[in-house]
């Protein structure tokens, strides 16, 4: 018997280390280790690992033609796994062979023929747990303590590599399965090195695009890149576990708000940074809504307080002016009186916005009010703007102050006139609607809709954000007080309703006012029949809508009623789907960033004539038709819609 010299031991350990550090797959690594030991150190080598159920699983046995030593053999893997202590058999006796053969005379004969001399089995231990065993059989030598210690070190290093591989696999699994977007980028080049599925889904790029040359600058707004680079440099690539809020850019060009935490890691020997990005767009939207609501409430309180105190001053001014006018009808006093009346009008508007004016609500028929004001609106609007009304029959009554509702209509009409300097069309519509948590006010139940639409210049998001604030105006100085829409806002809110605006630059504007429907009197006509139950179907519907939330909602509503729903964001994708797949109905938004719904419908009609088409929009249907966007006979459904109204309309178009 002889034992390995120190130089040979170091050489063996170095070669084992090279194999374990080569980055090979686990099974190939174990086989390479066994090949290193056979035949130089053993005639037979086996590596057993603990399985998911705790039982030993033989992963390697070299040479394969060698009669396998059973795991439960004396001094074998089972006992080593249980005790965690190595087993050394310096001399294999006839009794040991007989016990290992378990009474199988054929196997006993095979073992005798091998002329086995010695055996050892050592645990694959990480220091805290045993993950498997390494077993060796020798025919040319007798193992000693030095051999046992050497194989113990080989086993320890192998176990550490196995555990590290398992940890990497678990980490990779957690990385990939995380519902939160995560990625790794190179600190020097800023290139993406790894991305998970959530990142691909949220940002819209494929994995190949991310890893094919993109950098983290590609998902940032261009104007914020200098700030990004400065922030990275200030941390020297170490990352920060303190959450930071940034804006990111998706492949579709949409800006999202994200909360980012980062950490420095070594990724394949490269100085890298791990990023976890939580999408907080919805939270930020709710925060902005709350901030806006608090701002409007604060402005309302201020406006109400100013109006109240100012009315006291106006009372004094007006009173003394009347006294002086009774003595002397001078022109100067007339001007003072006129200015006082104008100031009083302004304070009434401030009180309307602050919802502190005294209302005298009565049961009103909006149809009668709109019809009665049509002649007056013609005079206000002018000859170059046509006025049309579309009044629903059997309209439910509302409880509101008649004078204030008339003021609302006049203010909206005047606002529409200013938005159409070169003429256009104004449309007033009424309708009974059933709402379910609609809009920021979460309006629910039966309401009466008053929609005022124009074909004017429209407005962008920045203007819409400040539209109802007192004294906000886009007009030139001296041309308006900025209180008209603030007054409308206050009257509607004080009447228990909600007001919403739909507008795009160059596409006109629709104001939608929802007022709670009042109970009908005994002499009033009965309420219209409720909406029919949702109309189910099995056809395939392609939904084209640039707003993801609306798109997802429509898909959910239709799929729950049996339809097969496909979705698309862009016109070319929609046309391709209609030509390649069996699409029965195209449901498309009217106003979209790149291609209008009408243009898309024309392309689909040319490519797939059999596809039926249904349009939808936040603008009212009458306004859309009068804009010239759609023909009068085009199928149309107005947002917001309920599940019943949507499925009924879809069924109607498919069956027509």
Automatic annotation (TrEMBL):
Domain spans labelled PAS: 167-224
CDD domains the UniProt entry points to: HisKA (cd00082), PAS (cd00130), REC (cd00156)
UniProt-listed InterPro entries: CheY-like_superfamily, GAF, GAF-like_dom_sf, HATPase_C_sf, HATPase_dom, His_kinase_dom, HisK_dim/P_dom, HisK_dim/P_sf
Domain of life: Bacteria
EC code(s) of this entry: 2.7.13.3
Localization terms from the record: Cell membrane
SMART domains registered for this protein in UniProt: GAF, HATPase_c, HisKA, PAS, REC
Modification 4-aspartylphosphate occurs at: 589
Gene3D superfamilies the UniProt entry points to: 1.10.287.130, 3.30.450.40, 3.40.50.2300, Histidine kinase-like ATPase, C-terminal domain (3.30.565.10), PAS domain (3.30.450.20)
Pfam families: GAF (PF01590), HATPase_c (PF02518), HisKA (PF00512), PAS_9 (PF13426), Response_reg (PF00072)
Domain Histidine kinase: 305-519
Protein name: histidine kinase
Organism: Solirubrobacter deserti
């Amino acid at each position: 018997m002889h034992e390995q010299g120190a130089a040979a031991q170091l050489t063996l350990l170095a070669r084992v280390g090279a194999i374990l550090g080569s980055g090979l797959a686990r099974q190939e690594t174990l086989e390479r280790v066994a090949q290193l030991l056979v035949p130089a150190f053993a005639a037979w080598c086996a590596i057993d690992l603990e399985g998911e159920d705790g039982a030993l699983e033989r992963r390697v046995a070299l040479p394969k033609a060698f009669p396998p030593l059973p795991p439960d053999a004396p001094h074998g893997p089972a006992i080593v796994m249980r005790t965690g202590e190595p087993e050394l058999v310096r001399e294999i006796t006839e009794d040991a062979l007989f016990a290992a053969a378990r009474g199988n005379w054929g196997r006993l004969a095979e073992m005798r023929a091998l002329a086995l001399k010695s055996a050892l089995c050592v645990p694959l231990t990480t220091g805290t747990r045993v993950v498997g065993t390494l077993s060796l059989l020798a025919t040319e030598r007798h193992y000693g303590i030095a051999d046992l210690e050497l194989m113990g070190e080989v086993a320890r290093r192998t176990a550490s590599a196995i555990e590290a591989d398992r940890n990497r696999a678990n980490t990779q699994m957690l990385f990939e399965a995380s519902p939160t977007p995560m990625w790794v980028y190179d600190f020097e080049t800023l290139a993406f090195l790894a991305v998970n599925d959530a990142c691909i889904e949220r940002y819209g790029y494929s994995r190949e695009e991310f890893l094919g040359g993109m950098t983290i600058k590609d998902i940032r707004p261009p104007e914020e890149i200098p700030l990004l680079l400065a922030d990275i440099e200030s941390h020297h690539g170490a990352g920060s576990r303190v959450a930071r809020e940034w804006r990111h850019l998706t492949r579709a060009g949409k800006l999202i708000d994200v909360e980012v935490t980062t950490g420095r890691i070594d990724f394949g020997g490269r100085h890298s940074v791990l990023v976890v990005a939580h999408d907080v767009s919805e939270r930020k939207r709710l925060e902005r809504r709350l901030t806006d609501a608090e701002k409007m409430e604060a402005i309302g309180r201020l406006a109400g307080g100013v109006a109240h105190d100012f009315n006291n001053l106006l009372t004094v001014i007006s009173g003394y002016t009347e006294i002086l006018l009774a003595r002397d009808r001078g022109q100067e006093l007339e001007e003072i009186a006129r200015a006082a009346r104008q100031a009083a009008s302004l304070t009434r508007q401030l009180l309307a916005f602050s919802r502190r004016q005294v209302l005298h609500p009565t049961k009103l028929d909006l149809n009668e009010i709109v019809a009665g004001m049509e002649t007056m609106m013609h005079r206000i609007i002018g000859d170059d703007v046509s006025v049309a009304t579309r009044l629903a029959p059997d309209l439910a009554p509302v409880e509101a102050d008649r004078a204030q509702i008339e003021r609302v209509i006049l203010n909206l009409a005047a606002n529409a006139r200013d938005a159409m300097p070169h003429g256009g069309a104004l449309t007033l519509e009424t309708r009974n609607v059933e709402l379910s948590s609609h809009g920021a006010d979460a309006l629910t139940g039966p309401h009466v809709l008053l929609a005022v639409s124009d074909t004017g210049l429209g407005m962008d998001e920045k203007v819409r954000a400040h539209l109802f604030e007192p004294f906000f105006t886009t007009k030139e100085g001296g041309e308006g007080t900025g209180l008209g829409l603030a007054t409308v806002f206050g009257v509607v809110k004080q009447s228990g309703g909600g007001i919403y605006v739909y507008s795009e630059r160059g596409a006109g504007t629709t104001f939608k006012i929802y007022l709670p429907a009042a109970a009908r009197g005994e002499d009033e006509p009965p309420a219209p029949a409720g909406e029919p139950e949702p109309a189910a179907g099995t056809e395939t519907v392609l939904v084209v809508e640039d707003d993801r939330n609306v798109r997802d909602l429509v898909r959910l509503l239709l799929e729950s009623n049996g339809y097969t729903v496909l979705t698309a964001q862009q016109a070319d994708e929609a046309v391709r789907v209609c030509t390649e797949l069996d699409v029965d109905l195209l449901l498309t938004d009217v106003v979209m960033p790149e291609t209008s719904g009408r243009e898309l419908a024309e392309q689909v009609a040319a490519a797939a004539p059999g596809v039926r088409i249904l349009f939808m929009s936040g603008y009212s249907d009458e306004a859309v038709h009068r804009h010239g966007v759609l023909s009068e006979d085009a199928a149309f459904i107005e947002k917001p819609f309920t599940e019943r109204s949507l499925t009924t309309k879809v069924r109607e178009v498919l069956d027509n």
